[in-house]
Design brief:
Helices cover about 35% and strands about 15% of the residues. It binds zinc ion.
């Protein structure tokens, strides 16, 4: 591993963040302006490169072979036949377009721009005269619209279109898709709201999309409609369709809810959109309700990976502490929604805990959703796979990652997140710059008349983050570096002088800077052994192993032939001394942890139920084997088989 300082920034435009509050928004932090944060090397840059070279290219092909583009052509009348796939097929097109848009911002490319234009034309042609657009409904619906909004995803598709249109406008300056979005948004404004059709879509996302479209166009009607959609929930609208409301996040009004519940993606897309509304309207009561729900989610309904959604049944959150590892759902899209929500809460409050969850979720709940090759995906992300696991459904992880799904929400969602990742690195607060995520690259901000920072790090393998001030600006300003909550014992220096770094807070340095000043943050990279609240019964008596921002797992290919991952037991005291070893040859280059483990005595021989002893049986004679644990995100890239994050104590 070498730490290479990034090349000086170029003038190439790069993405402004998804969710970019207006200057008047009630937020503590703003994303850095367009083109100002770039990841230029290291861990995430490699993932972004693969996303660009493999995922976005194959995604373009999949939109054709899976029928998404043909559906739009049929709706436009330029092709004939039956539309294919689920009712939200258009949303896959829009998420892919958004990915391509952010990607063009990262690095302009005529081929990508050509694809954007080609697909924009296909989308535009399908749009009805009055702005309505939903290809599947247009063809299958016999002229009917919005007759079953709890299920029809018509607003959901619109929301994704708005996000794509904004991304493409921000990075290319082209208005083709934005024109389509505005026409559809105007149609929604004319159709929905108080005194009009008082209905909400069963699947939120239009709220986020409308607020972003407001930010891009200045049309306040879009913000007002988003606000109405947020406030209309929880008042029986969906129940009037004979549906049970919990699944749809419609049981309790958003501003009264104390936790997240129901379908996990719907729930966090709604809260993310509500956070956008709260930011733009200065609604402190709504923000307080969202804070409460975020705390409820993170204290009782979040996996150690950051994944959310414990139940396969209806892709839902479980009850409090219902977080079983083997049938964890933890949909890749839910992880993305959680990142989107936490990002908005971070902007609103400037609190490190939100950036902490973004980090945990990106590395351990989002990234496992895509293969190292960038072409295959997990829909669900269990924390344990048993020997002989059964492939019961298309989305089962027991299949291994798959190139696409009949319900293909996750793949293009992963693409757009990787393409826009630069935006989550840093923010500005007027007279300061905050670094939230650590990656080699450059950050420019308007603070103090214009500053530029160069960050170099081998994170997440190494804990040293070096920030060099390239353009010092004028006068005093504050540089803030997030010290993650897990980083007890972090140290830091400013221009060579030691300063205090406290876990779970920003390291704040306010001074008049000179070009060449360096702040160095050293995060402790020892092994951390964690256990869950005992109310998480499913993993009681088990521990997980973390290092830096990464959660680790034990996977079968790394175990001796006569030891199945199911039977691994550990002793906590022994784990604390586990060595980290960087293995450039393994899984694209990972640091493994050499864990001493034990075989469960009698695990495979005794009866299913046995007389209980007064004390746990003494297993001092159990043989110790040292096995490499790998970062959980990298599992299932060699073969699909037994794996576990939670390791029972011997
Ligand atoms: Zn999904």
């Amino acid at each position: 591993m070498t730490t290479t300082a990034p090349a000086p920034s170029t003038t190439t435009p790069a993405p402004v963040a998804p969710a970019a509050p207006t200057a008047d928004a009630a937020v503590a932090l703003h994303p850095v302006p367009s083109g100002s944060a770039r990841i230029t090397g290291g861990f995430w840059h490699e993932r972004q490169d693969v996303n660009r070279r493999q995922a976005i290219r194959t995604g373009y092909e999949k939109l054709e072979t899976a029928g998404n583009l043909q559906n739009l052509r049929i709706a436009a009348g330029t092709a004939t036949g039956e539309v294919r796939g689920p009712i939200f097929m258009d949303s896959d097109v829009y998420k892919w377009l958004e990915a391509a848009g952010w990607e063009y911002g990262r690095e302009p490319d005529e081929e990508v721009l050509g694809w954007i234009r080609e697909i924009t034309d296909i989308v535009a042609a399908a749009q009805a005269e009055d702005g309505y657009l939903d290809s599947v409904q247009q063809v299958r619906g016999n002229g009917e619209r919005y007759v079953d909004l709890p299920w029809s995803h018509e607003h959901y598709c619109a929301g994704h279109l708005f996000q794509a249109a904004v991304a493409i406008h921000r990075t290319t300056g082209e208005t083709g898709l934005l024109d389509v979005a505005v026409k559809l948004a105007d149609h929604l404004v004319a159709t929905f709201g108080p005194g009009k059709t008082e209905e909400v879509d069963g699947h939120p996302v239009v709220e986020m999309g409308l607020v972003e479209l407001y930010r891009e166009t200045g049309n306040r009607a879009y913000l007002d409609l988003a606000q109405w959609f947020v406030d209309a929930r929880g008042h029986g609208i969906i129940e009037q369709h004979g549906k049970e409301p919990t699944y749809f996040s419609d049981r309790v009004p958003v501003r009264e809810a104390s936790t997240v519940e129901g379908h996990s993606v719907r729930a966090v897309y709604l809260t993310a959109g509500a956070a956008d509304v709260a930011a733009e309207t200065g609604d402190a009561e709504l923000l307080a309700a969202l804070t409460r729900q975020w705390e409820g989610m993170t204290s009782t309904k979040t996996y150690v990976t950051g994944g959310i959604g414990a139940r396969w049944d209806w892709e839902q959150f479980g009850d409090h502490y219902e977080l079983g590892p083997d049938r964890a759902y933890a949909e890749s899209c839910a992880a993305i929604g959680s990142v989107q929500w936490s990002w908005r809460m971070l902007l609103a409050t400037g609190e490190t805990r939100y950036a902490d969850l973004v980090e945990r979720t990106l590395y351990n709940a989002f990234l496992p959703g895509v293969s190292l090759a960038g072409t295959e995906y997990f829909y669900v992300n269990p924390l344990q796979m048993r020997a002989g696991a059964h492939t019961d459904e298309e989305r089962s992880a027991a299949h291994g990652r798959r190139p696409w799904f009949d319900c293909a929400c996750c793949p293009p969602n992963i693409m757009r997140t990787l393409s826009s990742l630069d935006a989550y690195v840093a923010t500005t607060s007027g007279d300061g710059v905050q670094l939230h995520q650590y990656a080699t690259g450059t950050v420019r901000a308007d603070a103090a008349g214009g500053v530029e920072l160069a960050v170099s790090t081998d994170y997440p393998w190494d804990g040293t983050v070096r920030v060099e001030v390239r353009e010092p600006g004028t006068g005093e300003w504050e540089l803030a570096l997030r010290v993650p909550g897990w980083a007890e014992g972090a140290t830091a220096t400013v221009a060579g002088d030691a300063v205090e770094a406290t876990a779970g807070q920003y390291l704040r340095v306010r001074r008049t800077w000179s070009a060449g000043d360096v702040v160095e943050l050293v995060l402790p990279m020892g092994v951390r052994v964690v256990e869950a609240d005992p109310r998480v019964d499913a993993v009681r008596g088990a521990v997980a192993v973390e290092r830096g921002p990464l959660v680790y797992c034990v996977e079968q290919p790394d175990l001796p032939a006569d030891l199945v991952a199911d039977d691994v037991r550990v002793r906590v005291a022994e784990l604390r001394g586990a060595r980290a070893e960087h293995r450039p040859d393994l899984l694209g280059g990972v640091s493994v942890l050499q864990l001493p483990v034990h075989r469960a005595l009698g695990a495979a021989t005794g009866p299913l139920y046995r007389p209980a002893a007064d004390e746990a049986p003494e297993q001092a004679e159990a043989e110790t084997v040292e096995v490499p644990a790998i970062p959980y995100y990298a599992w299932a890239n060699r073969e699909i088989g037994p794996m576990r994050v939670w390791l029972p104590r011997a």
